[in-house]
Amino acid sequence: MRPSRVFKLIIVAGLLVATVFVVMKITDKDEEERTVDIEEDKDAGLDLKFEEHEVDNGRKEENVNKAEEQSLQQGEAQHHQKSVNLSDRNPSTAKEMRSIINEVNFNQEIHNLDKFPKRPEEGMVIVVQVHNRPEYLEQLVKSLRAAKDIEKALLIISHDYFSKDVNKIVETIDFCQMMQIFFPFSLQFYPDEFPGQDPNDCPRDIPRDKALEIECTNAAYPDMYGHYREAPFTMTKHHWWWKAHRVFEGLKATRDHKGLVLFLEEDHIVSQDFYNTLELMYKLQQNDCPECDIITMGLYDRPSNYQSVGDMVDVITWQSSKHNMGMAYSRDTWAKIRSCSKEFCTYDDYNWDWTLQHVSGKCLPSTLTTMVILGPRVFHIGTCGMHHSNQDAKCEVSKEVGYVEDLLRKNKPYLDPTGLYIKQRFDKSAVIKTMKPNGGWADPRDHRLCMSYAKMQLVGQNDT
Hints:
By secondary structure, this protein is an alpha/beta fold. It is built from 13 helices and 11 strands.
């Protein structure tokens, strides 16, 4: 075996062991019942148990060595199978999934370089957060395929679920450079231990005194409403925060990117002129709105007629309930948000956007300002999601898509603007109503994991 290959495989093993170590560090409870908390205050911590709490330290070290050896063997096999599609992989255990997604995250492979070997220096990066709703993702990919100038973009699909159906859809993307990344701490990859739902975690609705009596893991840490952690509801906020760190700081292809990054979700679709419109908004931001932190391309309250608004934007204080769809921002804005990492990671709300609203109003020197396109180019079609169920929505994807397509068809004369204009600048001092947090994010283990993502990006930064 060539020395370079051996070296690469050793690095792969190191990354896998590092990932295991992070989870162990967050969830471990050794024989001395050591405690930790978010500020590493040894006198007020949460006792955390590792999955194999009955084995001694010698056995743990032996397991890590075995995992490293297995990782090297798997890495060598996967090196020769680099061209194998993820949809052809059939992992049967969470451990096998973790091995695959760690390899994908390490490789950072950019697909379609044969068709698009170079992108413009000012080309946009588009990041799509994906769970497991292939019927929606298929529509997003279809709309991206039809978009003008999409070949200029680097499209990053950020998964938190390993799905054959989703991977098949992603593998159809042949219209621009594309990369896949996986949030490595999702519930699917850790189903029976933190960050998933550990069997010894407290039930959601158990009273605190009863939780303390039965000594469930997080008994001392219910949320502000007296409820205990539910793993599925923590995943979206974790994923959102991790992927921003990963794109701006960890990926070789983007960590020096100086332009915009557009963040989409699997249940969004875009107009054919969205890319050109985003370029125009970025130019307008640079020339006429240096105070604008975020560009917003989607609106929930969308107009039916674009004649008077198709080329118009407003400048307004960012609000999570109005401006969380089709957000684009640069690393300068990310640096502002990142400076409030502790506030973001410890605020008792499982929603990333409500948390960002809190950060904007309570941590940043001034609230976030957004430039909003009044004729939206990004649309939400997800009638079923975290806040919906089959009882209150029929999840009729084609119906939602048809509505958007009809809207764009009627307004075709007012799309593809050659320039944009600021219609109104709203007073930045206007008071934004303080929102009551939703809870679900009081467990110090979530706080610690959230805070750890920055350090994780330092691993492998010197890889070539």
